[in-house]
Amino acid sequence: MIPQSPLVDSHGRTLRDLRISVTDRCNFRCLYCLPETEAAANFYRDRWREKEQKPIHHDWKPKNEILSFEEIERITTIAASAGIDKIRLTGGEPLLRKDIVTLVRKLSAIEGIKDLAMTTNGFLFPKYAQELKDAGLDRISISLDSFDKANFKRLTGRNGLEEVLQSVQVAKALGFDPVKVNAVVIRDINDHEIEALCQFAIDEEISVRFIEFMPLDSSKAWQKEHVISKKEILDRLQNRFDLTPLTSSNASETAKRWSVNQSKGELGIIAPVSEPFCGHCNRIRLTADGQIRTCLFSLHEHDLKPLLRGNTTDEEILTALHQIVAKKEAGHRIGKADFVQPARTMSCIGG
Ligand code: SAM
Ligand code: SF4
To answer: What is residue 50's predicted lDDT score, i.e. its pLDDT?
Structure first.
Protein backbone atom coordinates (compact mmCIF):
# COMPACT_ATOMS: atom_id res chain seq x y z
CA MET A 1 0.00 0.00 0.00
CA ILE A 2 1.33 3.44 -0.90
CA PRO A 3 0.26 5.83 1.87
CA GLN A 4 -1.77 8.73 0.49
CA SER A 5 -2.47 12.09 2.08
CA PRO A 6 -4.94 11.76 4.96
CA LEU A 7 -8.61 12.58 4.71
CA VAL A 8 -8.90 16.00 6.35
CA ASP A 9 -12.07 18.08 6.41
CA SER A 10 -12.38 21.84 6.04
CA HIS A 11 -12.53 22.18 9.85
CA GLY A 12 -9.15 20.52 10.28
CA ARG A 13 -10.40 17.16 11.51
CA THR A 14 -8.53 14.10 10.26
CA LEU A 15 -10.82 11.17 9.52
CA ARG A 16 -9.74 7.79 10.90
CA ASP A 17 -12.94 5.90 11.54
CA LEU A 18 -15.20 4.39 8.86
CA ARG A 19 -18.54 2.88 9.85
CA ILE A 20 -19.87 0.50 7.27
CA SER A 21 -23.51 -0.50 7.17
CA VAL A 22 -23.68 -3.90 5.51
CA THR A 23 -27.47 -4.14 5.31
CA ASP A 24 -30.47 -1.91 5.94
CA ARG A 25 -32.53 -4.93 7.08
CA CYS A 26 -33.15 -5.85 10.66
CA ASN A 27 -34.74 -8.66 12.65
CA PHE A 28 -35.67 -6.26 15.49
CA ARG A 29 -37.98 -3.26 15.46
CA CYS A 30 -36.52 -1.03 18.13
CA LEU A 31 -38.75 1.75 19.36
CA TYR A 32 -36.01 4.34 18.88
CA CYS A 33 -34.88 3.15 15.47
CA LEU A 34 -37.28 1.15 13.34
CA PRO A 35 -40.61 0.98 15.12
CA GLU A 36 -43.51 -0.88 13.59
CA THR A 37 -45.16 -2.45 16.61
CA GLU A 38 -48.45 -1.54 18.21
CA ALA A 39 -46.62 -0.88 21.50
CA ALA A 40 -44.32 1.60 19.78
CA ALA A 41 -47.19 3.32 18.01
CA ASN A 42 -49.10 3.58 21.29
CA PHE A 43 -46.11 4.95 23.12
CA TYR A 44 -45.63 7.71 20.61
CA ARG A 45 -49.32 8.41 20.04
CA ASP A 46 -50.42 8.45 23.66
CA ARG A 47 -47.55 10.42 25.07
CA TRP A 48 -46.19 12.79 22.52
CA ARG A 49 -48.41 13.02 19.52
CA GLU A 50 -51.82 14.43 19.00
CA LYS A 51 -52.16 13.18 15.47
CA GLU A 52 -52.98 9.60 14.60
CA GLN A 53 -49.82 7.67 13.79
CA LYS A 54 -49.51 6.71 10.14
CA PRO A 55 -48.64 3.07 9.48
CA ILE A 56 -44.91 2.71 9.07
CA HIS A 57 -43.61 0.91 5.99
CA HIS A 58 -40.11 -0.36 5.65
CA ASP A 59 -38.97 -0.56 2.08
CA TRP A 60 -35.73 -2.48 2.10
CA LYS A 61 -33.26 -1.58 -0.60
CA PRO A 62 -33.28 -4.05 -3.51
CA LYS A 63 -30.29 -6.38 -3.60
CA ASN A 64 -28.73 -4.81 -6.70
CA GLU A 65 -28.45 -1.49 -4.87
CA ILE A 66 -26.56 -3.01 -1.96
CA LEU A 67 -22.77 -2.94 -2.21
CA SER A 68 -21.10 -6.26 -2.87
CA PHE A 69 -18.28 -7.50 -0.63
CA GLU A 70 -15.81 -6.65 -3.40
CA GLU A 71 -17.11 -3.06 -3.52
CA ILE A 72 -16.92 -2.69 0.27
CA GLU A 73 -13.42 -4.17 0.27
CA ARG A 74 -12.32 -1.78 -2.48
CA ILE A 75 -13.57 1.34 -0.68
CA THR A 76 -12.04 0.17 2.60
CA THR A 77 -8.67 -0.44 0.94
CA ILE A 78 -8.73 3.00 -0.67
CA ALA A 79 -9.79 4.64 2.61
CA ALA A 80 -7.08 2.74 4.52
CA SER A 81 -4.46 4.10 2.14
CA ALA A 82 -5.59 7.58 3.27
CA GLY A 83 -5.34 6.88 6.98
CA ILE A 84 -8.62 5.20 7.92
CA ASP A 85 -7.50 2.60 10.46
CA LYS A 86 -10.71 1.82 12.33
CA ILE A 87 -13.71 0.02 10.86
CA ARG A 88 -17.03 -0.76 12.51
CA LEU A 89 -19.53 -3.02 10.76
CA THR A 90 -23.10 -2.17 11.53
CA GLY A 91 -26.55 -1.97 9.95
CA GLY A 92 -29.49 -2.73 10.14
CA GLU A 93 -28.44 -5.94 11.74
CA PRO A 94 -25.01 -6.84 10.32
CA LEU A 95 -25.40 -10.54 11.15
CA LEU A 96 -28.31 -10.74 8.69
CA ARG A 97 -25.90 -10.12 5.81
CA LYS A 98 -25.23 -13.42 4.08
CA ASP A 99 -21.64 -14.65 4.52
CA ILE A 100 -20.78 -11.79 6.86
CA VAL A 101 -17.83 -13.86 8.15
CA THR A 102 -16.28 -13.72 4.68
CA LEU A 103 -16.50 -9.93 4.68
CA VAL A 104 -14.87 -9.78 8.12
CA ARG A 105 -12.04 -11.99 6.85
CA LYS A 106 -11.52 -9.75 3.79
CA LEU A 107 -11.56 -6.49 5.77
CA SER A 108 -9.33 -7.73 8.59
CA ALA A 109 -6.65 -8.56 6.00
CA ILE A 110 -6.51 -5.01 4.61
CA GLU A 111 -3.20 -3.33 5.32
CA GLY A 112 -3.60 -0.38 7.65
CA ILE A 113 -6.79 -1.55 9.39
CA LYS A 114 -5.83 -1.74 13.07
CA ASP A 115 -9.24 -2.21 14.61
CA LEU A 116 -12.23 -4.08 13.21
CA ALA A 117 -15.38 -3.95 15.33
CA MET A 118 -19.06 -4.78 14.96
CA THR A 119 -22.26 -3.50 16.56
CA THR A 120 -25.01 -6.11 16.73
CA ASN A 121 -28.33 -6.59 18.46
CA GLY A 122 -26.86 -9.91 19.60
CA PHE A 123 -29.74 -12.14 18.56
CA LEU A 124 -27.68 -14.16 16.06
CA PHE A 125 -24.28 -13.54 17.59
CA PRO A 126 -23.85 -16.89 19.41
CA LYS A 127 -24.27 -18.65 16.07
CA TYR A 128 -21.44 -16.75 14.36
CA ALA A 129 -19.23 -15.64 17.26
CA GLN A 130 -16.43 -18.18 16.95
CA GLU A 131 -16.20 -17.79 13.17
CA LEU A 132 -16.19 -13.99 13.47
CA LYS A 133 -13.38 -14.15 16.00
CA ASP A 134 -11.38 -16.54 13.81
CA ALA A 135 -11.95 -14.28 10.80
CA GLY A 136 -10.31 -11.35 12.59
CA LEU A 137 -13.08 -9.41 14.31
CA ASP A 138 -11.37 -7.52 17.16
CA ARG A 139 -14.24 -6.05 19.15
CA ILE A 140 -17.95 -6.43 19.63
CA SER A 141 -20.69 -4.11 20.93
CA ILE A 142 -24.00 -5.71 21.80
CA SER A 143 -27.16 -3.67 22.20
CA LEU A 144 -29.21 -4.41 25.32
CA ASP A 145 -31.71 -1.98 26.79
CA SER A 146 -33.68 -4.05 29.29
CA PHE A 147 -33.47 -7.10 31.56
CA ASP A 148 -37.20 -7.49 31.72
CA LYS A 149 -38.65 -9.86 29.11
CA ALA A 150 -41.79 -7.84 28.50
CA ASN A 151 -39.95 -4.53 28.43
CA PHE A 152 -37.31 -5.99 26.11
CA LYS A 153 -40.09 -6.93 23.72
CA ARG A 154 -41.68 -3.51 24.02
CA LEU A 155 -38.34 -1.88 23.17
CA THR A 156 -37.18 -4.17 20.40
CA GLY A 157 -40.47 -5.50 19.09
CA ARG A 158 -39.14 -9.06 19.51
CA ASN A 159 -38.68 -11.77 22.14
CA GLY A 160 -34.93 -12.05 22.31
CA LEU A 161 -33.69 -11.25 25.78
CA GLU A 162 -32.25 -14.70 26.46
CA GLU A 163 -30.34 -14.80 23.17
CA VAL A 164 -28.89 -11.34 23.76
CA LEU A 165 -27.83 -12.19 27.32
CA GLN A 166 -26.26 -15.36 26.00
CA SER A 167 -24.35 -13.40 23.38
CA VAL A 168 -22.69 -11.34 26.14
CA GLN A 169 -21.50 -14.58 27.76
CA VAL A 170 -20.29 -15.98 24.46
CA ALA A 171 -18.37 -12.77 23.65
CA LYS A 172 -16.69 -12.91 27.06
CA ALA A 173 -15.86 -16.60 26.76
CA LEU A 174 -14.24 -16.04 23.36
CA GLY A 175 -12.05 -13.32 24.80
CA PHE A 176 -13.45 -10.29 22.98
CA ASP A 177 -11.96 -7.43 24.96
CA PRO A 178 -13.58 -5.19 25.90
CA VAL A 179 -17.12 -6.54 25.51
CA LYS A 180 -19.36 -3.49 25.25
CA VAL A 181 -23.08 -3.32 25.84
CA ASN A 182 -24.94 -0.34 24.33
CA ALA A 183 -28.14 0.85 25.97
CA VAL A 184 -30.45 3.60 24.75
CA VAL A 185 -32.54 4.89 27.62
CA ILE A 186 -35.90 6.48 27.00
CA ARG A 187 -37.89 8.27 29.64
CA ASP A 188 -40.70 6.19 31.13
CA ILE A 189 -39.73 3.19 29.03
CA ASN A 190 -36.51 1.82 30.45
CA ASP A 191 -34.97 4.60 32.54
CA HIS A 192 -35.85 2.61 35.66
CA GLU A 193 -33.28 0.04 34.48
CA ILE A 194 -30.28 2.40 34.50
CA GLU A 195 -29.00 1.12 37.85
CA ALA A 196 -29.46 -2.53 36.86
CA LEU A 197 -27.51 -1.92 33.65
CA CYS A 198 -24.69 -0.34 35.63
CA GLN A 199 -24.71 -3.29 38.07
CA PHE A 200 -24.47 -5.58 35.03
CA ALA A 201 -21.18 -3.87 34.11
CA ILE A 202 -19.81 -4.68 37.58
CA ASP A 203 -21.11 -8.26 37.69
CA GLU A 204 -19.98 -9.17 34.19
CA GLU A 205 -16.79 -7.06 34.20
CA ILE A 206 -17.77 -5.47 30.90
CA SER A 207 -18.33 -1.96 29.59
CA VAL A 208 -21.92 -0.69 29.62
CA ARG A 209 -22.46 2.44 27.58
CA PHE A 210 -25.55 4.58 27.73
CA ILE A 211 -26.37 6.38 24.49
CA GLU A 212 -28.65 9.40 24.55
CA PHE A 213 -31.72 8.90 22.39
CA MET A 214 -31.21 10.77 19.10
CA PRO A 215 -33.78 11.97 16.54
CA LEU A 216 -33.13 9.20 14.04
CA ASP A 217 -36.23 7.06 14.62
CA SER A 218 -38.32 5.97 11.66
CA SER A 219 -41.56 7.42 13.00
CA LYS A 220 -39.93 10.85 13.44
CA ALA A 221 -41.52 11.08 16.85
CA TRP A 222 -38.43 11.95 18.87
CA GLN A 223 -38.93 14.72 21.41
CA LYS A 224 -36.40 16.22 23.79
CA GLU A 225 -38.56 15.04 26.69
CA HIS A 226 -37.78 11.43 25.74
CA VAL A 227 -34.07 11.91 26.27
CA ILE A 228 -32.43 10.95 29.54
CA SER A 229 -29.37 13.18 29.47
CA LYS A 230 -25.86 12.32 30.51
CA LYS A 231 -26.25 14.55 33.57
CA GLU A 232 -29.38 12.77 34.67
CA ILE A 233 -27.82 9.32 34.20
CA LEU A 234 -24.73 10.37 36.09
CA ASP A 235 -26.61 12.01 38.97
CA ARG A 236 -28.61 8.86 39.47
CA LEU A 237 -25.70 6.47 39.24
CA GLN A 238 -23.52 8.55 41.55
CA ASN A 239 -26.16 8.07 44.26
CA ARG A 240 -25.74 4.32 44.09
CA PHE A 241 -22.21 3.63 42.82
CA ASP A 242 -18.69 4.84 43.37
CA LEU A 243 -17.71 6.25 39.96
CA THR A 244 -14.11 7.16 39.14
CA PRO A 245 -13.54 9.10 35.90
CA LEU A 246 -11.24 7.42 33.40
CA THR A 247 -9.10 9.45 31.05
CA SER A 248 -8.48 8.51 27.45
CA SER A 249 -5.53 9.10 25.18
CA ASN A 250 -7.94 9.08 22.23
CA ALA A 251 -9.25 12.62 21.70
CA SER A 252 -11.93 11.35 19.31
CA GLU A 253 -13.53 9.02 21.82
CA THR A 254 -17.24 9.72 21.97
CA ALA A 255 -17.91 8.15 25.38
CA LYS A 256 -17.02 9.67 28.73
CA ARG A 257 -15.99 6.75 30.93
CA TRP A 258 -15.90 5.80 34.60
CA SER A 259 -14.78 2.77 36.54
CA VAL A 260 -17.50 1.53 38.88
CA ASN A 261 -17.01 0.49 42.52
CA GLN A 262 -13.32 -0.25 41.83
CA SER A 263 -14.46 -3.24 39.78
CA LYS A 264 -13.35 -4.24 36.31
CA GLY A 265 -16.72 -3.06 35.05
CA GLU A 266 -16.87 0.22 33.21
CA LEU A 267 -19.56 2.82 32.63
CA GLY A 268 -19.61 4.93 29.48
CA ILE A 269 -22.01 7.70 28.49
CA ILE A 270 -22.33 8.92 24.92
CA ALA A 271 -24.09 12.27 24.95
CA PRO A 272 -24.53 13.54 21.38
CA VAL A 273 -27.67 15.48 22.36
CA SER A 274 -26.73 17.21 25.61
CA GLU A 275 -22.95 17.45 25.10
CA PRO A 276 -22.14 17.18 21.38
CA PHE A 277 -18.63 16.02 20.53
CA CYS A 278 -18.72 17.16 16.88
CA GLY A 279 -15.54 19.25 17.26
CA HIS A 280 -13.38 16.15 17.42
CA CYS A 281 -15.49 13.76 15.35
CA ASN A 282 -13.25 11.66 13.10
CA ARG A 283 -15.94 9.46 11.51
CA ILE A 284 -17.52 8.96 8.16
CA ARG A 285 -20.17 6.43 7.26
CA LEU A 286 -20.80 4.21 4.27
CA THR A 287 -24.38 3.06 3.91
CA ALA A 288 -25.32 -0.38 2.63
CA ASP A 289 -26.34 1.17 -0.69
CA GLY A 290 -23.04 2.93 -1.19
CA GLN A 291 -23.68 6.45 0.09
CA ILE A 292 -21.03 8.27 2.07
CA ARG A 293 -22.46 10.25 4.97
CA THR A 294 -20.16 12.74 6.60
CA CYS A 295 -22.36 13.08 9.70
CA LEU A 296 -25.10 10.98 11.33
CA PHE A 297 -27.33 14.00 10.76
CA SER A 298 -26.24 14.83 7.21
CA LEU A 299 -29.07 15.94 4.95
CA HIS A 300 -26.99 15.11 1.87
CA GLU A 301 -25.39 11.83 0.90
CA HIS A 302 -22.67 11.15 -1.67
CA ASP A 303 -23.29 8.16 -3.92
CA LEU A 304 -20.16 6.10 -4.61
CA LYS A 305 -22.01 3.43 -6.60
CA PRO A 306 -21.68 5.11 -10.01
CA LEU A 307 -17.93 5.39 -9.41
CA LEU A 308 -17.59 1.82 -8.17
CA ARG A 309 -19.68 0.45 -10.99
CA GLY A 310 -18.18 2.63 -13.72
CA ASN A 311 -14.65 2.65 -15.05
CA THR A 312 -13.32 4.84 -12.26
CA THR A 313 -9.80 4.17 -11.00
CA ASP A 314 -8.86 3.86 -7.33
CA GLU A 315 -7.07 7.21 -7.59
CA GLU A 316 -10.26 8.86 -8.84
CA ILE A 317 -12.29 7.32 -6.04
CA LEU A 318 -9.76 8.58 -3.52
CA THR A 319 -10.00 12.07 -5.02
CA ALA A 320 -13.79 11.85 -4.69
CA LEU A 321 -13.41 10.79 -1.04
CA HIS A 322 -11.18 13.79 -0.33
CA GLN A 323 -13.74 16.11 -1.93
CA ILE A 324 -16.61 14.56 0.04
CA VAL A 325 -14.77 14.62 3.36
CA ALA A 326 -13.86 18.27 2.86
CA LYS A 327 -17.59 19.02 3.07
CA LYS A 328 -18.05 17.35 6.48
CA GLU A 329 -20.44 19.40 8.56
CA ALA A 330 -19.06 21.40 11.50
CA GLY A 331 -21.63 19.73 13.74
CA HIS A 332 -25.23 18.62 14.10
CA ARG A 333 -28.13 21.02 14.73
CA ILE A 334 -30.16 19.03 17.30
CA GLY A 335 -31.96 21.45 19.59
CA LYS A 336 -31.53 24.39 17.16
CA ALA A 337 -34.54 26.03 15.51
CA ASP A 338 -33.34 24.97 12.04
CA PHE A 339 -32.82 21.29 12.92
CA VAL A 340 -34.14 18.93 10.27
CA GLN A 341 -34.26 15.19 10.95
CA PRO A 342 -32.54 13.21 8.16
CA ALA A 343 -34.88 11.32 5.87
CA ARG A 344 -33.17 8.01 6.60
CA THR A 345 -33.25 6.37 10.00
CA MET A 346 -30.48 4.98 12.15
CA SER A 347 -31.16 1.50 10.75
CA CYS A 348 -30.37 2.71 7.22
CA ILE A 349 -27.53 5.04 8.12
CA GLY A 350 -25.72 2.57 10.33
CA GLY A 351 -25.27 3.50 13.98
N1 SAM B 1 -28.66 -3.64 14.76
C2 SAM B 1 -27.45 -3.40 15.46
C3 SAM B 1 -27.70 -3.01 16.90
O4 SAM B 1 -28.83 -2.67 17.23
O5 SAM B 1 -26.76 -3.05 17.67
C6 SAM B 1 -26.57 -2.37 14.80
C7 SAM B 1 -27.24 -1.15 14.21
S8 SAM B 1 -27.93 -0.05 15.41
C9 SAM B 1 -28.57 1.22 14.36
C10 SAM B 1 -26.47 0.63 16.16
C11 SAM B 1 -26.67 1.29 17.49
O12 SAM B 1 -27.47 2.44 17.31
C13 SAM B 1 -27.35 0.43 18.52
O14 SAM B 1 -26.56 0.35 19.70
C15 SAM B 1 -28.64 1.17 18.81
O16 SAM B 1 -29.04 1.04 20.13
C17 SAM B 1 -28.30 2.59 18.45
N18 SAM B 1 -29.44 3.41 18.07
C19 SAM B 1 -30.40 3.13 17.17
N20 SAM B 1 -31.29 4.13 17.08
C21 SAM B 1 -30.88 5.08 17.95
C22 SAM B 1 -31.39 6.37 18.34
N23 SAM B 1 -32.49 6.88 17.77
N24 SAM B 1 -30.71 7.07 19.26
C25 SAM B 1 -29.59 6.55 19.84
N26 SAM B 1 -29.05 5.36 19.51
C27 SAM B 1 -29.69 4.61 18.59
FE1 SF4 C 1 -32.44 -3.12 14.35
FE2 SF4 C 1 -30.34 -2.20 15.65
FE3 SF4 C 1 -32.25 -0.53 14.78
FE4 SF4 C 1 -32.79 -2.18 16.76
S5 SF4 C 1 -31.26 -0.53 16.79
S6 SF4 C 1 -34.11 -1.82 14.96
S7 SF4 C 1 -31.62 -3.92 16.27
S8 SF4 C 1 -30.89 -1.69 13.53
So the answer is: 47
CA dist., res. 343 & res. 87, Å (int):
25
Q: Please tell me if the CB atom of residue 135 comes closer than 6 angstroms to any atom of ligand 2.
A: no
β 179-185/255-260 pair status: unpaired
Q: What is the largest CA-CA distance in the chain?
A: 61
pTM score above 0.70: yes
Q: Are strands 115-120 and 302-303 parallel, antiparallel or unpaired?
A: unpaired
Classify residue 50 by burial, with Cβ atoms within 10 Å: 0-12, 13-18, 19+: exposed
- pLDDT per residue over 236-252, tens digit each? 999 999 999 998 878 77
Res 339: pLDDT: 83
- Report CA(347)–ligand 2 centroid distance (Å): 6
- The pLDDT score that the predictor gives to residue 51 is 46
Amino acid occupying residue 184: V
**Which ligand lies nearest the alpha carbon of 93?**
1
What structural domains does the chain harbor? 17-349 (3.20.20.70)
Q: Which atom of ligand 2 is nearest to the CA of 346?
A: 3
Cα angle 129, 209, 143; round to 5 = 40
Q: Which has the closest alpha carbon to 183: 194, 192, 173, 174?
A: 194
Instruction: Estimate to the nearest angstrom the gap between the alpha carbon of 147 and the chain centroid.
Output: 21
